[in-house]
Design brief:
It is a single chain. The chain has 626 residues and is α/β, with parallel strands linked by helices. The chain contains 14 helices and 35 strands. The protein has a 7-stranded mixed β-sheet, sandwiched between helices. Helix 10 runs parallel beside helix 13 (521-539) and helix 11 (446-459) runs parallel beside helix 12 (476-484). The two termini are 34 Å apart. The relative contact order is 0.08. Bound molecules: adenosine monophosphate and magnesium ion (MG). The site of magnesium ion (MG) has 6 residues, from loops.
């Protein structure tokens, strides 16, 4: 299916009266909110998503997608939302789903589009059969964007019924078997009784997730598809804790922080100088003002300068009443209590910080999902916040597999290598802020592997292994991982790092996500950064997309289209001051030295061919990467 031709629209524009006039989409559900669940389900099916909402626009905007209110006024119903979406839709088709349908089918877009095309229709809607009765679900529909004018004319004539404009277009119905997938939540009771939060039942199966992909071939899976499946499969941990401000560094914020105060609390001076009334400034005459008082940082002055008067003020001093400008002291002279300033030195309003210019009381200072950095600690401190709600740390168990591996301190027998993967993995997990469980080296032995996986699964949220998943490796790895849960084996269109095992295993009521990384030391790091990292961050509830930059390639790079290649590079400033990148020595997938010498990875995308010298390429910096 061609997801690129479809945009998704979540209809959240209603008044939500049955919930007691709360905004339905923003109600907590499944560990997030209803609208977040719907967005998560729609995203893999379409090119992009947007929300139609008529209130709490800022809260909806926080999901990082466009928010479009109705153009037709007066809460005119879902059809008005559809109109707002169609007017802004940049693709040939628009798919709509209501914000209270967190169980919508993973193949909604694909099947509706197919139905529309087969019938040569303008609109296709979902129907189900319940007790032999055909039940249409008109808000779950796909529409040709070109039909917007027909819809607008219907609305302008006062039409409001979802199916009222059907006589003017060609409509197809698509039968879905799973009626439960179209359940919507209308009341608080339904919200509570249907909320899967806390119960593992909500977890999708890999088969459901991969069914969203148009052409799924585990033996030739594009990087992008693997990333998408992983993203859709893992779910955030729900547990949170309250920690002291300093302990929040590097942790994931679990709730929005609203500023309790204006920062700064008062208008104040940005300079050491003289506070004056802008009205006294003259464009062509020298200004002489009598200094009537002095204000120090953090102090206020009772003085109220009149015309021809000013107040000496220090940086951070509260602006005296009536003053709106500050002239820095180095631009003026003071003689016998009079400040003298040349014409044109400043303009009215200069060097004054306004109350609330940093943050207004009641506005969102930090959004949940943020990984807290030093600036955030400072910001929180400036609000007087002493404790911060954060997500519980993710517990990640990891081990290496291979009979040839020796641990540091052991003699290196002939043909053996020291286990280095456990150290790179340790480093990468620690930087992500995970709690780690280092399980050492596991022999190439089915029972040992099974025991290690079971142990890891019962003690950790996620498991990372290295080695043993490549072609030719003992087949029991697959059998054991598959026996313990829902695990798939991929050959990914990438270099280095083709093989990857991914899924979830379970034992005695515990479950953990599993990443079986390849064995080669560089392949391990690449697979970690490009697959495991985002998944682990998502489990941690963090928003931290990979920060890819663009840089000019110094030399040509050979590359075949049809797979993603990752090359180790050194990024620096070119002679013209622009960033440029040079590939480091040997790129063999076992050669850690060139990884260590590199400060970045050059990402040569799937469809890309060879790169000419001077061409721009994507780059992922290692420093600053959490
Ligand atoms: P495998 O995927 O198990 O076939 O391993 C592929 C290659 O990576 C082999 O040359 C292994 O010796 C090497 N390798 C696997 N695990 C590690 C490790 N933990 N440290 C260093 N090299 C490893
Ligand atoms: Mg091995």
């Amino acid at each position: 299916m061609n997801t690129a031709s479809i945009s998704g629209l979540v209809l959240a524009g209603g008044r939500g009266t049955r919930m007691g006039t709360v905004d339905k989409g923003l109600q907590p559900f499944g560990g997030s909110t209803m609208v977040a669940q719907v967005l998560d389900r729609l995203r893999p099916q379409v090119a992009g998503v947007a929300i139609n909402a008529n209130q709490n626009l800022e809260a909806y905007g926080a999901f990082g997608v466009p928010v479009w209110p109705d153009d037709t006024p007066g809460f005119a119903g879902p059809l008005a939302g559809l109109e707002a979406g169609l007017r802004r839709c940049a693709t040939p088709y628009l798919l709509s789903a209501p914000c209270d349908s967190p169980f919508l089918p993973p193949d909604l877009a694909a099947r509706l589009l197919q139905g529309l095309q087969e019938a040569g229709a303008d609109l296709a809607l979902a129907v189900t059969e319940e007790n032999g009765l055909r039940q249409p679900h008109p808000v779950f529909c796909i529409v040709k964007s070109s039909k917007v004018d027909v819809l607008s004319a219907y609305l302008a004539a006062g039409g409001r019924r979802m199916d009222g404009w059907y006589p003017q277009i060609k409509v197809a119905e698509v039968l879905f078997e799973d009626a439960a997938a179209f359940r919507n939540i209308n009341t608080r009771d339904e919200l509570q009784s249907l909320d899967p939060a806390g119960s593992p039942v909500s977890a999708p199966r890999l088969a459901d997730v991969v069914s969203c992909l148009s052409a799924y071939d585990p033996d030739a899976l594009p990087v992008r598809d693997a990333q998408r499946i992983i993203r859709d499969f893992v779910a955030p941990l729900r547990a949170t804790e309250q920690v002291a401000l300093r302990a929040a560094l590097g942790r994931v914020l679990a709730a929005d922080i609203t500023s309790p105060i204006d920062v700064p609390a008062h208008d104040n001076s940005a300079m050491d100088g003289y506070a004056l009334r802008g009205a006294d400034l003259s464009p062509d005459a020298e200004l002489r003002l009598r200094v009537i008082d002095t204000v120090y940082a953090g102090r206020t002055s009772g003085a109220v300068p009149g015309p021809g008067e000013c107040v000496r003020i220090m940086t951070g001093g509260v602006m005296p009443a009536g003053c709106d400008s500050v002239v820095p002291q180095e631009f003026v002279t003071e003689h016998e209590g009079v400040m003298i300033m040349a014409p044109g030195t400043i303009r009215a309003g200069d060097n004054r910080r306004l109350a609330g210019e940093d943050l207004k009381a009641g506005s969102a200072a930090l959004r949940k999902g943020k990984v807290i950095r030093p600036a955030d600690l400072g910001l929180l401190a400036s609000l007087g916040v002493a404790e911060v709600p954060v997500r519980r740390r993710l517990r990640v168990a990891f081990f290496s597999t291979g009979d040839e591996l020796r641990s540091i301190g052991q003699p290196l027998d002939e043909g053996c290598v020291y286990d280095s993967n456990r150290y790179t993995i340790y480093g990468m997990l620690t930087r992500l802020g995970c709690d780690i469980i280092d399980m050492g080296v596991v022999r190439d032995d089915p029972q040992a592997l099974e025991d290690a996986l079971v142990d890891a699964c019962e003690n950790a949220d996620a498991i990372i292994t290295s080695g043993g998943v490549s072609v030719g490796a003992a087949d029991y790895t697959k059998q054991i991982m598959a026996k313990l849960g829902d695990v798939t084996f991929w050959k990914i269109g990438m270099r280095p790092g083709r093989p990857l095992a991914f899924g979830r295993i379970a034992s005695r009521g515990h479950s953990a996500f599993l990443f079986g990384l390849p064995g080669n030391p560089v392949a391990v790091m690449v697979s970690f950064y490009f697959f495991a990292r985002e998944a682990l961050l998502r489990m941690m509830g963090a928003e931290a997309p990979l920060p890819l930059l663009k840089a000019r390639s110094v030399a040509p790079i050979r590359k075949k289209p049809g797979r993603t290649e990752y090359q180790r590079g050194v990024l620096s400033r070119g002679a013209d001051g622009q960033p440029e990148v040079k590939i480091t020595g040997s790129q063999g997938s076992g050669i850690l030295r060139s990884m260590s010498e590199a400060n970045c990875m050059v990402v040569l995308q799937d469809e890309q061919g060879s790169v000419q010298a001077g061409e721009m390429v994507d780059v992922l910096m290692f420093e600053g990467l959490i």
